[in-house]
Design a protein that fits this description.
The structure is a homodimer of 154-residue chains. By secondary structure, the first copy, chain A, is mainly alpha-helical. Chain A has one domain: Arc Repressor Mutant, subunit A (Orthogonal Bundle), CATH 1.10.10.10. Chain A contains six helices and four strands, in the order H-H-H-E-E-H-H-H-E-E. In chain A, helix 1 crosses helix 3, helix 1 crosses helix 4 and helix 2 packs across helix 3. The two termini of chain A are 27 Å apart. Chain A binds a DNA duplex (30 and 30 nucleotides) through helix 3.
Chain lengths: 154, 154
DNA sequence: TCAATCAGGACTATTTTAGTACTAATTGAG
DNA sequence: CTCAATTAGTACTAAAATAGTCCTGATTGA
């Protein structure tokens, strides 16, 4: 199905929330409260995204998180890279440049082409676009089964 | 990482093998022997791909499998659809047309755009391209770790 | 009738993903 | 200087998805 992990979905929500007030420092608890995600999960996400440079953190009392750059500068590809590692439809195709035998290896060509296409699409969509989507997914029916935006039970 | 499942990888190998002799009927054992995959796995794959119409089967003694259509008519998207279900980066985005609230739901727009781009890329690559890749992946180094084309241990 | 073969599904094992908990480090404020 | 709030790191547990196996039944050519 080639689907994103839940964590990435949540990550988008968290980033969308931070994007709403880019200048304001938000603690993990703030984010958890407003996104309705469980605190430990939000905490984990923020830590991950700090390490990968999507958000910046301030430690100590009154500490918290902020976006590392303008929302327009954060793409879907950035989020997925941060939370799932580099996009790579096959094992070796993610390591362009690392693979010494790239020009011998037939795998590169076709799957690589696909990878590039995917990445380009993911690069074009930025946080503001995603943020618009995040907060208004209504309950809907998927093949007869009623679903809602899936969030962490807590 | 957005990666394909192993099964899909194997599926490609199996199809590539069938594509080598499109007119010849191959039993599951034949395929297993020549692809170096475990028989039960190959069997499972072939059954799945038969049900989804990628290959046709003939039962009974002297039975076996053949491609359902010309190799050029089978795309990467077909293989993934058959073995992993429809490509859909988010939950609801796979059900275009089924979702009654599609025009209300903000999720459609951005992720949908990404989905379409991915699907187009997957549609363009056909079995002959993939087949060329399948049989000559040499041992290589991935970030210092020596790897080979991963196959089923059996 | 038998042996070879596919069909279907149940089941188990493995791996990946999600989620939690605990301990250490940092820092502003009283 | 101490305390409370807060992030950092990491280890661990739980749940879900994926992979893989096996068994039983149906089909068919010899």
């Amino acid at each position: 199905m080639l689907k994103m992990s839940k964590l990435t979905d949540y990550g988008t929500m968290v980033l969308a929330f931070l994007a709403a007030n880019p200048t304001r420092m938000q603690s993990a608890s703030d984010v958890a409260r407003d996104t309705h995600l469980a605190l430990p999960t939000v905490s984990k996400l923020l830590k991950l995204m700090t390490r990968t440079g999507l958000v910046v953190s301030t430690r100590g009392a009154l500490g918290g998180y902020q976006l590392a750059r303008a929302p327009e500068e954060i793409s879907a590809a950035d989020v997925i890279d941060a939370l799932e590692g580099p996009v790579a439809i096959t094992q070796c195709s993610g390591s362009v440049g690392h693979c010494e035998l790239e020009d011998v290896c037939g795998v590169s060509s076709s799957w690589q082409k696909i990878n590039v296409a995917i990445r380009r699409a993911l690069d074009e969509v930025r946080l503001p676009h995603l943020a618009a989507a995040e907060f208004r997914m209504p309950p809907m029916n998927l093949m007869g089964i009623p679903i809602t935006q899936e969030t962490d039970r807590r």
